[in-house]
Amino acid sequence: MADYRVLTLNKISRQGLSRFPAGRYEVGDAVADPDAILVRSQDMHGMTIAASVRAIGRAGAGVNNIPVRLMSERGVPVFNAPGANSNAVKELVLAGMLLAARNLVPALRYVDTLSGDDATLHKLVEDGKKNFVGTELPGKTLGIVGLGAIGGLVADAALRLGMQVVGFDPEITVDAAWRLSSQVKKAQSVDELLKQCDFVTLHVPLVEATRNLIGGDRIKGMKDGAILLNFSREGIVDNEAVVAALVAGKLRGYVCDFPANALMHQPKVLTLPHLGASTHEAEENCAIMVADQVRDYLEHGNVRNAVNFPNVEMLRESPFRIGIANANVPNMVGQISTAMAEGRLNIHNMVNRSRGDMAYTLVDIDSDVPPAVLDHLARIHGVLAVRYLPLAGASA
Asked: 395 pLDDT exceeds 80?
C-alpha cells in the first residue's frame, strides 16, 4: 500500500508526476482520501475537500481557484509555483506589445478579405497598408506594475529592445530587487507611472487591493494613446472603463489574456484565450516545482512557496520530526516546548516562523514521539494541525 495518495484535478505534466516515486505514492484523478491535491485551473471553491488532505499544490502562480482561507483554518498549506511560467508570460507580453504597436491583427484580418489575381492583390495591399501604420518600440516607455519574477523578465527584455522602463511595486522582495536592472526607473505610485508610459503591463495578483486597479479614474490620468496589457488576472482591469477609453480615443489599444463579453468585437481590443502559461515548458516547470514542494512537505514538513504559510525549511538532524501549524499567538513556542518536556522528549532542533495570522513550527526530537504527546499538542488552543513525520522505519 502506498505511503501517500495524491489526487489530480486537472491534467498535470507527466514530468511533474514522475517526481512522486512509484510504490510510495498513489497518484491519479480517482484517488480516495488523498493526502494532497494537485490542481491547475479547476475551481475548488464548491468542492468538498476531504479531511485527509494535508496539502494543496497549484501547478501555476495564481490561487484564486482554491479556498485558501478555508485551508488556512484547517492548517493546510497551499503551494504554488512562482516564477516557473515566467518566461512563457514574458514572451506573450512582448508578443502583445508587438501585435498592438504594429497593428498586426487588423492587418492580418485585412489580408484575409482580399481576393483576385496577383496583380490585383498587389494593388489592394499597396492601397490598404497605409491603414495599418504602426510604431516601433525603441525609445518608447514601458510601465510595469508588479516587479516580481515576470515583471523583472519583462523589464530586462524591454531594456534590450531599447525601451525606457518605469516600474512600481511597493511589496518588491529583496531577491527581486537584487535581480532588477538599475536602468529601471522607480515610480512612487501607480498614477505616477501611468501618466508617463506609452505601454503599461500589469503583473500583480488579484486581491481586494488590486481589483479594478485600472479603472476609469486611473485611465483618465494615462498618457494619451497608450496601450494597456493585462496578462496577470481578470478583474484587475475594469473592462467597461477600458472600452469607453478606447472608443473615446484616450487609449490606443488593450491586449489581454481574459476574454469577456464586454471586450468582444471591439476593434481596438486583442484578447487571447488565457495562453499565459500555455507552453510545454511552462507546464512542465510548474508541475515539477509544485510536485517537489508538496513531496517535501508530506515527507519532511518543509514549507517552500506556500501562499498562506511562512517558508520553513530545516535539515533533518533526527529521524523523528513533528510539524505544527498554528495561529500566530503569544507563547505558542513555549507551550509546544512544555508539552515536549512533559512527555520526556528532548528537542534536538526547532524552527518557528510566522506570516500574518499563521505560524508554523518544525521540531526534531531525539526519540520516538508517543501518541499522548501528539494528542497534547493538538489540544493546545490555537493549534490547527499536528503531523508526526518519522523517517521510514524510525518509529517503534
From this structure: no
